[in-house]
Amino acid sequence: MQDAVPVDGFTYDLLTPVVAYCMAVLGSALGLRCTMRALAVEPSRRLGWLALGAVAIGTGIFTMHFIAMMGFTARDVQINYDLLITLASLVIAVVVVGIGVFIVGYRGRTPLALTGAGMITGLGVACMHYTGMAGMRMDGARQMYSAPVVTLSVIIAVVAATAALWLAMTVKTFGVAIGAALIMGVAVCGMHYTAMEALSVHLTHAAGELTGRTPAEILTPILIGPVLLLVFVGLFVGMDPLEREWRHRDEEDALLAAETPEAGNFEPSMFDRRD
């Protein structure tokens, strides 16, 4: 086996990392909001919101990963993707994240439930990444990973995802929910780029002639469906009547806290049922 070939994860400079992070934040914000919504309704209506939350977070992770991979190239190596394994990584992300979401939805916001759900959600991020990487096909080359850096990438995903879930489910205001989504975006992107540092590409034999198709051209058709799915979830959440009520209550709670000096123990009432 030959020496490792140079790789570049930022072929388009900061364009792909920034767009990828935004998609991770969008999916996380929608997913966390759906999970919070599930905790505010009757148990009989909880299933749909939790499933929607899992789809949003899992799709956001998937979209982030492959947008970031648009900027990944290896010198003199043609990169392609196995469609079935690529789509399987989306299913894995939704299912594993869904387990974490359902733990919170049906076990409540206890420390044990939040910690367990955060760990599972972080593992879902890692499972999606490495399954997606398993679907990568390199003509005349193979992937190798540094075990310590892989371990570090999983730890980053688990710790940041757990922190985001704790923040979103315990502070319970719209602004803090956005902050939690930003942290979740850090979990997804931090895990991804740390994991890519663990990767080295080694030539096994002389590569064939490059076809000229870039990773961006290959991945764009694959991403159309997941991006549209995130848009659909966003529209569904945005049109939910309780969403507007929550935001209005957040404004009232903030105003009350500002006008009441002794409101140190004041807690917003997002999860008070008024329907």
UniProtKB/TrEMBL annotation:
Residues 12-202 form the MHYT domain. The keyword Transcription regulation does not apply. It holds the Pfam family MHYT. InterPro entries: MHYT_dom. This is MHYT domain-containing protein. The chain crosses the membrane at residues 14-35, 47-72, 84-105, 112-132, 144-167, 174-195, 218-239. It comes from the Bacteria. Keywords: Membrane, Transmembrane, Transmembrane helix.
